[in-house]
Design brief:
Elements (H helix, E strand, L loop, with lengths): L11 H8 L6 H9 L8 H12 L2 H6 L2 H4 L7 H23 L7 H12 L6 E7 L5 E9 L9 H10 L4 E7 L9 H15 L4 E9 L2 E5 H4 L3
Helix pairs in contact: 2-3, 6-7, 8-9
Length: 225
């Protein structure tokens, strides 16, 4: 049955307008994005297909065009629309951080990092370089690795800090395994980076581990920094 044939108070768009986006399921939000279904399927059905295919929104957001287009009814146009929406969300959160707003709201930092890192199938080591007022200078990927590990070189991290004239940094890396728990190696690396960056007067404010299946873990909140 097409969504237009549903009772009005059950349609995703009408429910969003009446009660806000937070009341909708992932599939219903995707349905509003998709707008129309396909033969024999409503837009909500297609949304469920996408969630089922990728296992969640993070994996969907990180999918490449070829993988995305394997889902019946999807193609380059929808993929381009989805990537545009994601990039707008990243830029909006980036604007908050450039104004220094985000660091009074740790959730905004978590959201930003999740949009960048949560769905990746390989490990990356990421940095948010900040000025003396904790405003974002630049967000950049420092190192890229395999499914299970990334090599991080403290000397290169220091060179990046000096290049950006940074006063502070928030570090982050992802765990493609889906579990945001620090290893002993993660703890030792964080301690080493904190020490070497202190030599050039750059403060390490936090280190986040990002995974698709759990909220980003903060080293500062865990008392590991």
């Amino acid at each position: 049955m097409a969504i237009n044939d549903w009772p009005e108070d059950e349609r995703p768009r009408e429910r969003l307008l009446a009660h806000g986006a937070a009341c909708l399921s992932d599939a219903e939000l995707l349905a509003i994005f998709l707008r129309v279904g396909s033969r024999g399927k409503s837009a909500v059905d297609l949304g469920r297909d996408l969630i089922g295919r990728f296992g969640g929104l993070n994996r969907l957001f990180a999918a490449g065009l070829a993988e995305f287009a394997e889902v019946p009814g999807m193609g380059p146009a929808k993929y381009a629309q989805l990537q545009a929406v994601l990039e707008m969300a990243r830029r909006a959160l980036g604007e908050e951080m450039r104004q220094g707003i985000a660091f009074t709201s740790p959730q905004a930092v978590r959201d930003y990092l999740r949009l960048h890192l949560a769905g990746l199938q390989h490990e990356v080591f990421f940095a948010l370089w900040l000025d003396a007022q904790n405003r974002l200078i630049v967000a950049e990927e420092l190192f890229r690795g395999t499914l299970t590990q990334t090599s991080v070189y403290p000397r290169e991290v220091v060179k990046k800090a000096l290049r950006h004239n940074a006063a502070a940094v928030v570090l982050a890396h992802n765990h493609p395994s889906g579990v945001a728990e620090p290893s002993r190696a993660d703890e030792l690396l964080t301690s080493e980076l904190k020490q070497v960056l202190a030599l050039v007067e750059v403060r390490v404010l936090d280190h986040f581990i990002v995974a698709a299946q759990s909220p980003p873990l903060s080293f500062a909140e865990r008392g590991l920094l």
